[in-house]
Task: structure prediction
Amino acid sequence: MSKRFNPKFTSHPAGYVVWRLGLIFLCLLAVALGLYALSGVARGWSALASSLTVLIAIPYTIGAWGVFLIDPKGTKLRQGHTKLYITAPTLFMLAVLFLGSLILGEGVICMVMLSPIWLLSAIAGGLTVRSLHKKFINQSTFLCSSLMLMPILALIIDSTTPLSTDYRQVKRAIIIDAPTEAVWSYIHHIDNITAEEGRWNLSQDVIGLPRPDAARMVGHGIGAIRTSYWGESITFEEHITRSDFQKTLEWNFVFPNDSLQHHTDRHISPDGEVLKIQSGGYKLVALAENKVQLVLHTEYKMTTPLNGYSALWGELFLGDIQNNILQVIKSRSETLPHKN
Result:
């Protein structure tokens, strides 16, 4: 047989690999969207972002099956292409994150919070396939195929296992060179906060959390209501529960509308099943004449499969917000101590 007609020398058409990878990706995206929808039914749409299926099972399956479809028999592993089992899941997951956010309309906050754990889960899926190819050469196809059962198991766990609830506090402090009465005045009422005021931070300047514009108090002492105005039409209330003159101001958060959730992320309600921002307060400590330590604290509860992981983001987001607010009050108190 001549070389021309020997199948040994035939090659795939140009672009075959690209089309195959594209087809694999579309299949994985379809699987991810389907599992996402099933998870919403199993756990409930309000708690969807905190389900075990969404957090771990979907990215793990995408990573595992992405690698398996590229190298179903472990041929590339035996040829020394070990990096494939890390790079392929990473690229697939990044693409799913990007297109999934466009298709599902996910907010930036949700995507930022999910990205680290999704990437790690996808890589874990790829490494699992590598291990199966390496240790079970003859049975690896069957074992890799069985990994598709993981999302089903996760759905069962999601629908039958109650989530634990943790209570957390985030606290920040700042030293202000101003009279106590000036600081006390500004924590009650502050207007016309400009974009130049405050402190640069990752949460608000990079991720895009809104910044405060004003806070206005109606009433005096316990029972008074301070309304905060943030970003584009965001409002929420702080109902005063304790007021010790020039020492302590505490409140319970009340969210009378969905403006905060609407402008940040639909899965992260500040008063929902997954997250509930409950209370907060200021404490003023006089250090010397015209020198005050101002402490701002916020308490919240969360109900997720990974409360410890979620708390890290809570510390970042709320901590950045608190530092920014404290810096605004410091600047106003030190430069305009008698105006408010």
About this structure: The first strand starts at residue 165 and ends at 176.
